[in-house]
Amino acid sequence: MPQFDSSTALIVVDVQNDFAHPDGSLYVAGAAEVVANANRAIARATGAGALVVYTQDWHPEHTPHFEQDGGIWPVHCVADTWGARFHDDLTTAAGPTVRKGVDGNDGYSGFTTRDPRSGAQQQTDLEDILLEAGVERCVVVGLATDYCVRETVLDACRLGYEVLVPTDAVAAVNLQPGDGEAALAAMTDAGALVDRIQ
Ligand code: VGL
Ligand code: ZN
Question: What domains appear along the chain, each with residue ranges and CATH number?
Fold first, then answer.
């Protein structure tokens, strides 16, 4: 796990029941280890006075993001349902939560969401929260490596942050075998430090 300090933020991506619980509709294999290692990172960040920000995928009942409505995903993380809640084992409330996908947008990145029909992009509050806290470096953990972690990391790199991704605190959906590895390679190409960081 990396060293935290007051100019480093820990971004905990989408550790919600639908991704992190075996009964979840989009359960990601390896999520239990992610929860344990995310908790370790949260404890270290909190102890070092670093900002912790959580993201939540937060969808309406119908959105073109879902297969039933023309998209590719099973129904997941519907606002105010069990599936959208943080996994019970996750250390919560160490910092603010940014919800994405509200209004039916695709919300892969914690920083930006996108209308799946028009492609129009919208900002979440995440960048403002980081700016206000004087953050220069982001450590990104959570689910899933090949979707929300990847997009959050790529946006953070684009925005000029130094980005670290501890590989033992992320896990991939792997719709296609190798998606997780490809996502980690894309993050490395974008300038992120992707490693088993102790
Ligand atoms: C995610 C698929 C659909 C994620 C969100 O959090 O990685 N994946 N919506
Ligand atoms: Zn989603």
Answer: 8-195 (3.40.50.850)
